[in-house]
Amino acid sequence: MNQSLSLAVGMAIGLGLMWEKLYTPAGF
Q1: Distance (Å, whole) CA 12 – CA 19
Q2: pTM recorded for the entire structure
């Protein structure tokens, strides 16, 4: 797998998890 593509996917997943942790308690 392409290194930069793998990194981009990992960052996207990490941001998604952070977003969920931040906004789930707010009702989103």
Answers
A1: 10
A2: 0.54
